[in-house]
Write a structure and sequence with these properties.
By secondary structure, the protein is mostly helical. It has a single domain, classed as Up-down Bundle (Ferritin). It contains five helices and no strands. It is elongated and about 60 Å long. The structure holds fe (ii) ion (2 copies). The site of one fe (ii) ion has 6 residues, from helix 1 and helix 2.
């Protein structure tokens, strides 16, 4: 596709995010199964539900733009998730695995935060104020998830550190 305008870039980036979110929908159930800490498990479960709504928000925007959300694979998220998969294949103490899962999840959230920050701003510049609001909602959820993971890491990383000896 030719990118002649900010609108073209906006749509391309939205497609990337749509692909990224769908990859996350597939990865999160595996992370839920792999996590040991009940708080971490339930945090992932909650974010899985949020992610389903985030996909619906993107679909709504595509519908209103009369565009298809499909046709792009987000290679960045593919790489971030591949790193997480590699981690999950390791033999690790449960606390250490949980610490690793938090790190993997934070990479995902930071990637999303960058993406949603961009498309939210493009939407504002293009005058799509309703889209900007929807994208801001998702951005807020990604940020809240990242903060929650940081909070969980405070305990889980300490438990992982006890396995040092
Ligand atoms: Fe998301
Ligand atoms: Fe997320």
């Amino acid at each position: 596709m030719d990118m002649e305008s900010l609108k073209d870039l906006f749509i391309e980036e939205l497609k990337d995010l749509y692909s990224a979110e769908n990859q996350i929908l597939k990865a999160l159930p595996k992370m839920i199964r792999k996590a040991t800490s009940p708080e971490l498990k339930s945090g992932f479960e909650q974010h899985l539900k949020e992610t389903e709504v985030q996909v619906e928000r993107l679909e709504k925007i595509f519908q209103e733009l009369e565009q298809s959300p499909k046709g792009k694979k987000c290679k960045g998220m593919e790489g971030v998730i591949a790193d997480g998969k590699e981690l999950m294949e390791e033999e690790a103490e449960p606390e250490v695995m949980d610490a690793g899962l938090i790190g993997a999840a934070q990479h995902v959230e930071h990637y999303e935060i960058a993406g949603y920050g961009c498309v939210r701003t493009y939407a504002e510049l293009l005058g799509y104020h309703d889209f900007a609001k929807l994208l801001q909602k998702t951005l807020d959820e990604e940020r809240a998830t990242d903060e929650k993971l940081t909070e969980l890491a405070r305990n889980i990383n300490v438990e992982a550190a006890r396995t040092a000896a």
